[in-house]
Design goal:
211 residues; Ribosomal Protein L25, Chain P; RNA Polymerase Alpha Subunit, Chain A, domain 2; six-stranded mixed β-barrel; 4 helices; 39% strand; Large ribosomal subunit protein bL25; ribosomal protein; RNA-binding
Length: 211
């Protein structure tokens, strides 16, 4: 992903209300709000084509972004994005200001590696989570966290506490206590297909008849 997708030009929005939002969307603009860091919320608009291109990249959701609002460059992370139910359209975005010296909480995607190794053993991999909430300084925010499942055996589960987090990054859930050590991925035995069940039943029936 190129760095320019982490930078978005924005304009301060003064025309408020649902009618104004509809007009903005018709003009290929995305209404948004910037809040946090002890400052007043600011309503802004963004170019839809730039936002839509950027949001196709996974890293866009777990990266510190720069909003150029007038002459000010504001560092933010995405907190919410509303999409049209069936059109390829971004309806609204919420951005949270970040302070380089203050810890932030945000979700980071998980990348599962070596699943093919486990699949060769016949195990079925089931994900309980595809992202986790982390706490860290903005400079330490990872784009993703790898979860290596190569040693996972049937019946075993990888929990939050089993994941090696980057330096300076902690799990928000684990910080709440041991009872928040959630399952992330599990290896299960393959399910017997209905054809196999039918075959087993027929074999059992034939054995009973012969007796």
């Amino acid at each position: 992903m190129t760095m320019d997708l982490f930078t978005l030009d924005a304009e301060v929005r003064t025309d408020m209300g649902k009618g104004a939002s509809r007009r903005l969307r018709h003009a290929n603009k995305v209404p948004a709000i910037v809040y946090g860091a002890g400052k007043e919320p600011v309503s802004i608009t963004l170019a839809h084509n730039k936002v839509f291109r950027a949001q196709e990249e996974e890293a866009f959701y777990s990266h510190v972004l720069t909003l150029n609002v007038g002459k000010e460059a504001v560092e933010v992370v995405i907190k919410d994005m509303q999409r049209h139910p069936f059109k390829p359209q971004i309806m609204h975005m919420d951005f949270l200001r970040v302070d380089a010296k203050k810890e932030l909480h945000t979700n980071v995607p998980l990348h599962f590696i070596n699943e093919d190794v486990v699949a060769k053993t016949g195990a079925v991999i089931a994900h309980s989570a595809n992202e986790i909430e982390v706490a860290c300084l903005p400079a330490n925010l990872p784009e993703f966290i790898e979860v290596d499942v190569k040693d996972l055996e049937v019946g075993q589960t990888i929990h939050l506490s089993d994941i090696a987090l980057p330096k300076g990054v902690t799990s928000v859930e684990l910080a709440k206590g041991e009872d928040h050590d959630q399952a992330v991925v599990t290896a299960s035995a393959p399910k017997v297909s209905s054809d196999d069940d039918d075959a087993a039943e027929e074999a059992s029936s034939e054995e009973t008849t012969e007796e």
